[in-house]
Design a protein that fits this description.
With 515 residues, the protein is α+β, with helices and mostly antiparallel strands. The protein is built from 14 helices and 22 strands. Strands 3, 6, 7, 8, 9, 10 and 11 form a 7-stranded mixed sheet that branches.
């Protein structure tokens, strides 16, 4: 996830000070960014590869969100490898040609969360570079191991040789080599191209031109999970189980999600053509669907018949905290008193804006630590505690998590877990507990780098481990994003949560506050 602060109502990247070291000193960067960009085809976080879809966040996610870290690496490899056609050029590198290379290497050395084995990383990248060069050129290249000056300098000389003698454009070679290095660090660290940055910006607003349906990835195919009420997809007759074979004539099988994202998105009113196949059928059908603005609300709420407030946080975007307060006020205003309890549903919530998670935790907490972040660079270490301004009553709260709960949602659940009025129920969460910073680069690109790990309120590092619930529930439940208002109370996990509020759980005392 990213570090945020709010200035003039706009989210800005936490302003790391780089002193007088080039263009990167110009902060804050007024980009709206989120760990999981929004999709016209909403991809659940647990579809296909977990790691692929739940990165950037801090990447993917519930409703219409995916994570983009590893996906971006895939896209960059495709853009900057020989297979995709590394750009040919007769350009000869000068002193400024390696600005991108030098900047990324410097930032990596200074800010990356863990100690780096440069010998291994650069040797691997050099081998990959020589592999993609034309044989007649690569065979004449200087041997990486025989170049003096250290790993970074050796790779730099190879890049310079390839640009001068192999007819390849230097920047493309540099981006390819850097992404090869960064991919070995972790799936969240990568160079972002301008298109991906645009998708990230859209993701923070929750508004885009699309058709409003959720898909899952199975064996390389994109399978419809459901369409949202009133969406263009629903009106066109798209149903759960349909396989999306093509978009505008382009095959989707095995296509990276970042490419599907770009094909689905478009201006409101534009037409897209889908080729679909119903389950069990060998016949395909074509549908022409008009895109419209799809708004993904960050919060869904309902006051259940049992006077329990149901609060589903879809993701953490710019208005999540405000919408949470609005929903809670609605519960109180319904009967002029506090509800019997709150169900905080974080299932399939991939995360999002760090600051929103902290602010929402402050709603429910009057004291104590929320989270802390720690990295190799001590300047980035920080502890976040409750402001002490909350007057939220000590009523029972059940937090629902599952394997799709990641990043900022794990921060919120971890902050509340262990408090006397809170039970965390469900299944082990995803375990994405790293923090990314984003630095601007030349030509509209940016460098996203993992700078720290975050720890739960009681000091646990849940990265790659996940958050263990207090009470484990079965996997038999309805996908939260597809629940209609009148179906919420019948969801298996919601019913379990209501039972916990009224009777307590096997591992928790019965809540008797206000009863």
């Amino acid at each position: 996830m990213y570090l945020w602060e709010t200035r003039s109502g706009l989210p800005t990247v936490h302003p790391f000070s780089l002193g007088d070291r080039g263009v990167l000193r110009h902060f804050p960067i007024k980009w709206s960014q989120i760990s999981c960009p929004t999709l016209g085809l909403g991809n659940p976080p647990y579809a296909g590869s977990q790691l692929t879809k739940l990165i950037l966040c801090s990447l993917f996610s519930s409703l219409m969100f995916i994570a983009s870290g590893l996906l971006q690496l895939q896209a960059s490899d495709r853009l900057f490898t020989a297979a995709a056609g590394i750009t040919s050029s007769t350009h000869r590198p000068g002193a400024d040609s390696f600005e991108l290379y030098d900047t990324v290497i410097r930032l990596m050395r200074e800010y990356y969360v863990d100690k780096i084995d440069e010998n291994k990383l650069f040797a691997d990248s050099a081998a990959a570079l020589q592999f993609i060069l034309p044989p007649e050129c690569g065979e004449k290249a200087p041997a990486y191991g025989e170049i003096a000056g250290g790993p970074a300098k050796a790779l730099k000389q190879l890049l310079s040789y390839a640009s001068k003698n192999c007819g390849s454009e230097l920047e493309s070679l540099i981006v390819f080599s850097l992404n090869r290095i960064l991919a070995r660090l972790d799936p969240n660290t990568s160079i972002l191209d301008p298109q991906t940055l645009r998708e990230i910006k859209i993701g923070a607003t929750g508004k885009f031109g699309g058709i409003g349906m959720v898909v899952d990835q199975k064996e390389g195919d994109y399978v419809v999970v459901g369409a949202f009420d009133g969406s263009p997809a629903q009106k066109a007759g798209i149903k759960a189980g349909d396989i999306v074979l093509q978009i505008d004539g382009h095959e989707l099988h095995d296509l990276p999600l970042i490419d599907v994202l770009r094909k689905v998105r478009g201006s409101a009113g534009s037409i897209m053509t889908l080729k679909l196949q119903a389950p069990g059928s060998d016949q395909a059908r074509l549908l022409k669907i008009k895109r419209r603005i799809i708004h993904v609300p960050p919060v869904r709420s309902a006051l259940l018949d049992s006077n329990i407030g149901y609060l589903r946080l879809v993701n953490f975007q710019e208005t999540s905290m405000k919408e949470t307060v609005k929903a809670l006020n609605g519960f109180w205003n319904a009967h002029g008193e506090a509800p019997a309890g709150i169900i905080l549903d974080l299932r399939d919530n991939p995360g999002g804006l760090f600051g929103e998670a902290i602010q929402i935790a402050n709603i429910f907490m009057n004291s104590g630590r929320i989270t802390s972040i720690e990295g190799r660079n001590a300047k980035l270490n920080k502890e976040f505690s409750a402001t002490g301004k909350s007057n939220f009553p000590d009523i029972p709260i059940v937090v629902l998590i599952n394997k799709g709960s990641a990043s900022a949602s794990e921060i919120l659940a971890g902050a509340l877990q262990g408090r006397s009025n809170v039970v965390v129920a469900g299944r082990r969460s995803f375990g994405k507990a790293s923090v990314q910073a984003v630095f601007p680069l030349k030509n509209g690109m940016a460098f996203r780098i993992t700078t720290a790990h975050y720890y739960t309120a009681d000091g646990r590092n849940i990265d790659k481990r996940g958050l263990e619930p207090d009470i484990e529930l079965t996997d038999d439940y309805t996908r939260p994003e597809l629940l209609k208002p009148n179906e919420i109370e019948h969801d298996a996990w919601v019913k379990e949560a209501c039972e916990i509020i009224f009777t307590g759980g096997a591992d928790k005392p019965v809540f008797d506050t206000l009863f």
